[in-house]
Amino acid sequence: MAFSLNLRTSFLRAVLLLILFAGICVPQTGTVWGNPIEVNSYEGLVQALKIANESNTPVEIIITGSITLEGELPVITKEVTIKADPHQPLGSIKIDGAGKYRGLYINSSDPVEINGLNFTNCTANGSDGGDDASGGSGGLGGAIYVEKGEVILKDVHFQDNTARGGDGGKAVYNGPSSGSGGGNSEFGNGGSGAYDDADSRQGGIGAGDGGMQEAVYDPQRDQTSQAERTGGGGLGAGGAVFAKGGTIKFEYTQDYYEKYAGQNGTNPFQNNMSAGGSGGGGTAGDGDALGDGIFLLKGGIVFTTTAGETLRITSSIDGVAAASNLDWDDPETY
Fold first, then answer.
1. Residue 251 lies in a domain
2. Number of folded domains in the chain?
3. Which domain holds residue 199?
4. What is the value of pTM for the model shown?
5. Peptide bond before 36: cis, by omega within 30 degrees of 0?
6. Residue 30 falls within a domain, yes or no?
7. Does some domain include residue 14?
8. Which has the closest alpha carbon to 293: 156, 97, 136?
9. pLDDT per residue as tens digits for the range 169-188
10. Spatial CB neighbours of 221, under 8 Å, sequence gap ≥ 6
């Protein structure tokens, strides 16, 4: 009996060691995933990104079917490759943001590669300011937001994605001495509303300013009273892609040109848009709308094209660094 028990224990230990060395993970769903990880659902992609973020070695995620997002995905913090199933037609695997959610948020010091995916209907929405004249926050990077690092986008298509700034907060009559903070965003919050002329606070980058005291005539009381100025709208920037930093490398192969070829060249950015948030009213300004295709705050972007093919960019490329940090590997083919 003792011999049989020891043999069984040794066998179980061997199986566990094989699982560990093979890098196999067993999520709560009971599905056994190796590397690469194959997913075809929102829940599966969430789990796969969590595994990648916790791994000490690069992870490859293969998406075998189109996915409609049901919430924001985990921020990518480690080296990972996310690719469409190569056995499926190029462009047929979509990441659909359902008009509510951003596609990917990347904040990794290690390289990240996205391959063959079609980002569509993804949206980065800035938060609205409160009813205290606080400013709306910025909506930045509808499909992809890059905080830092090297990001390779190979044969990636962007269609119908949106970056929309939050609306400014409304004014209130005889409100508190200072409003609360504005809506949250990656680039800071909207400024607070204020009841003191000297305390109108500016929002962070991309966020609308908070309002300050303003004399307003109240017809019901037949007198002039004090009300808080309404908050400004947030910036909408990078309908498809927003880069706070890092380097983004766009690579397009012959397969992409054959799939998306048009009479005037191939356009990887189709019908993306940015929209600034509305001011809360009165003298508050609306947020700006910049870079329907790409907004580049810092860092750089590089387009690599297939020799002899034409890459046609019709969406705007905007930003502080866009003029000096936009490179083409072959000026004859773009």
1. yes
2. 1
3. 36-328
4. 0.76
5. yes
6. no
7. no
8. 156
9. 776 554 443 333 344 444 44
10. none
Measure the CA–CA gap between 260 and 255, rounded to whole angstroms: 9
Provide the sign of the torsion angle of the four alpha carbons 20, 107, 136, 300, taken in this order.
negative
Within a 10 A sphere around the Cβ of 308, how many other Cβ atoms?
A: 10
Structure-token pair, residue 194: 């204020």
Q: How many CB atoms lie within 10 A of CB 112?
A: 26
**Buried-exposed string 193-225: b where 16+ CB fall within 10 A, e elsewhere:** bbbeeeebbebbbbbbbbbbbbeeeeeeeeeee
Q: Tokens in use for 130?
A: 């409160």
C-alpha closest to that of 140 among 152, 119, 120, 126: 126
Closest among 268, 261, 216 to 240, alpha carbons compared: 268
Instruction: Assess if residue 121 is contained within a domain.
Output: yes
Q: d(Cα 228, Cα 196) in Å, to the nearest integer?
A: 9
Give residue 331's pLDDT.
Answer: 34
